[in-house]
């Protein structure tokens, strides 16, 4: 089970890093509204630029914490819960602007993976 959780942590962390550092300026079919970049996506949600900066810093921090949790397992649950909360926010933004459900797939998947990281170890102890 421990190896599976570590693989989930790596998957989530690199997924976040990919979107926020390497693909932030690229179009994807999952961007909110008609946005082609992360900045445009936050504008489509009606959010100011500073929110983009805060959310990006939080997501990258939680992603780093998930990687550090490979060696410091106590970081895994708080990082996964924090990232999961941000994914709930992402889902709510897609709903707010009336995006089709297909645009919410990455956020929903990351939310599910974060829930698994946070709660599977607790279930395994029972």
Describe the structure.
This protein has 126 residues and is mainly α. It has one domain (2-26, 35-124). Helices cover 71% and strands 0% of the residues. It contains five helices and no strands. It has helices spanning 2-22, 38-44, 49-68, 76-96, 105-124. The longest helix is centred in the N-terminal third of the chain and has 21 residues, at 2-22. It is elongated, with a radius of gyration of 15 Å. It starts with a helix and ends with a helix. The mean pLDDT is 96.
Please give the structural blueprint.
Blueprint: H1 2-22, H2 38-44, H3 49-68, H4 76-96, H5 105-124
Helix pairs in contact: 1-3, 1-5, 3-4, 4-5
Spatial extent as radius of gyration: 15 Å
* Helix run count: 5
Termini separation (Å)? 13 Å
Oligomeric state: single chain
Helix content: over 70%
Please tag this protein with its features:
0% strand; elongated; mainly alpha; 71% helix; 5 helices; 126 residues
């Amino acid at each position: 089970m421990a190896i599976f959780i570590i693989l989930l942590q790596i998957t989530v962390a690199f997924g976040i890093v990919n979107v926020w550092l390497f693909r932030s300026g690229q179009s994807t079919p999952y961007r909110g509204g008609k946005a082609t970049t992360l900045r445009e996506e936050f504008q489509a949600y009606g959010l100011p630029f500073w929110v983009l900066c805060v959310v990006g810093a939080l997501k990258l921090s939680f992603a780093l914490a998930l990687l550090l949790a490979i060696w410091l397992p106590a970081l895994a649950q708080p990082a996964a819960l924090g990232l999961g909360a941000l994914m709930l926010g992402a889902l709510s933004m897609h709903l707010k602007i009336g995006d089709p459900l297909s645009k919410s797939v990455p956020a929903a998947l990351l939310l599910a993976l974060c829930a698994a990281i946070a709660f599977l170890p607790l279930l395994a102890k029972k």
